[in-house]
Amino acid sequence: MTTEPSRRFPIGLTIAAAIAFTILIGLGVWQVKRLAWKEALLARIAALQAAPARPLAGALVDMAAGGDADFTRVIVQCPGLAKKPFLELYAVREGEAGLRLISACKVAEGGYDAILVDRGFVSGSVSARPPVDAADATPFTLTGVLRRPDKPTFVTPPNEVAKNHWYWRDAKAMAQALGAARPAPQVLMAETPTNPDWPALVPAPVPAEIPNRHLEYALTWFGLAAALAGVYAALLWRKWKG
Asked: Which one of 151, 175, 190 terminates a domain?
């Protein structure tokens, strides 16, 4: 005697498939939104790369008022920058480990008294450092890009202030270590060399290329959702046909 196959609707399978499908579609939609954000960011960077640098004073006033100064190119007078005291921030550039030298430049706009300057990258293979003379006041004009410091992640080591070992840009703590009060919340990344006679210190310009694979990711998630729907439909068809 043969037994008729069960044609009960697979509620458990349907619920599981619906949850997975919703998650996959949600991830795809999120990547589409990220795509729009990344395209706007890339357009902003491209525009400022071609724009002339504006005075830092105006950017600081805008920053204090809550404006978005990230990636803004600025120019500022920072006397004695080439010989200012500096902190050493661990960094990796183009796959090479090294340090970034961070100094403070005095300002007097937007309610800030100083701004941290990322003077550039020094390879870990270089043991020498620029000379330091806190009393030096040689005129110096700096062009650079304002950047919002990245927040530390769960794998970022804590800064060792006493040892001058820094692993993330804590603007307040760095400014305090450099004897600077009321620092601006953003860092000025030098585009022009701060020590032209010492080429080991490489300035960090605006990144020319930022990966943008969000469309690829979105299509992947939507494709997985479509594949899931197809598998579910095939299983349902087979169950009812069998």
From this structure: 190
Query: 73-77 and 54-55: which strand pairing?
Result: parallel
158/235 same-domain check: no
> Phi and psi of 49, rounded to 5°?
-65, -30
CA–CA distance, 227 with 237 (Å, rounded to integer): 15
Q: How many CB atoms within 10 Å of residue 79?
A: 14
Tens of pLDDT along 78-100? 999 999 999 999 998 888 999 99
The reply to whether 158 falls in a domain is: yes
Give how far Cα 102 sits from Cα of 73, 169, 180, 234, Å: 18, 9, 12, 61
Containing H/E element for 233?
Answer: helix 214-241
pLDDT tens per residue, range 183-205: 999 999 999 999 988 999 999 77
* The pair of three-digit structure tokens given for residue 80, joined into one six-digit string: 């004695």
21 Cβ contact list (under 8 Å, min separation 6): 225, 228, 229, 232
Number of domains in the chain: 2
Give the length of the chain. Answer: 242
Q: Who contacts 13 (Cβ-Cβ below 8 Å, separation ≥6)?
A: 232, 235
Residue 132: CA atoms inside 13 Å, Cβ hemisphere, count? Answer: 12
Residue 4 in this model has a pLDDT that exceeds 60: no
How far is it, in rounded angstroms, from Cα 186 to Cα 177?
17
193's CB contacts (< 8 A; 6+ apart) are 120, 199, 201, 203
**Residues 122 and 73 occupy one common structural domain:** yes
**Alpha carbon distance 185, 146 (integer Å):** 10
Same domain, 64 and 174: yes
